[in-house]
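Structural prep section.
Before we set up the soaks we want a predicted structure of the protein with S-adenosylmethionine in place, mainly to decide which crystallisation condition to try first. Input record follows.
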Amino acid sequence: MLLRDRFGRVIEYLRISVTERCNMCCVYCVAPENRGYEPREHLLTFEEIAEIVRVLARHGLRRVRITGGEPLVRPHVPELVRLLAQIPGITDISLSTNGILLPRYADALKRNGLKRVNISLDTLQPQKFHRVSPAGQWEEVWAGIQTALAVGLKPVKINCVLMKGINDDEVVDFARLTLEYPLHVRFIELMPIGNIGFYRRGHLFPIGEAKARCAQLGELIPVTEGEAVGGGPASVFRLPGAQGTLGFIGACTANFCHRCNRMRLSSDGLLYPCLGHGVHVDMKPALKLSPDQREQAIMEGIEQALLSKPEGHQFVTLAPHPTFRTMRVIGG
Ligand code: SAM
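Run finished without errors. Recording the tokens verbatim:
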């Protein structure tokens, strides 16, 4: 049985938040009033995460992405990669990270089965970095990107959240990066989730405008297959002669919910069928059952999440929906 929702969409991708803790505090992600963390004892163990993935994989799940918070602040994440890589059916394991801890962990992650990585970087100007991510240093992220390339993670994607008045003047510089390096830049439209106050101050920069600015550098040649495309929502292009690609993800102005193929598991065991909607199923009670009852109960939780997967996010109609949790909890 495939994981098919009420609207005919097939789920083959799970994003797993392993912690809501982060060693950065990016302006759009964490509101000042929201800086506390859940107690560590509420976290799912790696074995519990693997157990849920095993059940999903028996029904068609193929891809998983480890995220957070900053996933690499949780100790032993390479061990989770090893567990997930052993699950029959899982063909693609990726990681979203701010890159700071990659010099320490990239080797072990790759050795244990990590294929590819998305590294967040919202500015190419070191002096501007603290405006976006006050807790980190640009140079640390850049070192993480270089390490990812050096150990052979492939593709290395750069997640760049566009913010009007902050980094929209750098769109062309980011596009040029793909000419110089085998890096795959993904421009992401700001979403009303996390620090809603920041979003409301008019920082949304429409993805179509980013694409138009990139086109100033040359023809945008559509890329429809290959490692740079993956299973995500980006529309992907390459500039003539470029080593990397450019992807455009516009959750607000270029909605792609009809193509959604994913669910999200929060670090405290809630299965979210939609990032932009508060609906979720608590998987923890199922995980506490005896081994002979567990699989059935996990499957029931998954079916409930599938049944409640909304047709689309509520970013536009109800933004901000009061029950949204931040991206770092749900797993951005
Ligand atoms: N710490 C990791 C990282 O930096 O990539 C993983 C977690 S982070 C929440 C995942 C992605 O979500 C990052 O690329 C981040 O920029 C993006 N993100 C967080 N809040 C966002 C928002 N309100 N709108 C758009 N993207 C957001």
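Observations: The chain has a mean pLDDT of 92.
Flagged for discussion at group meeting.
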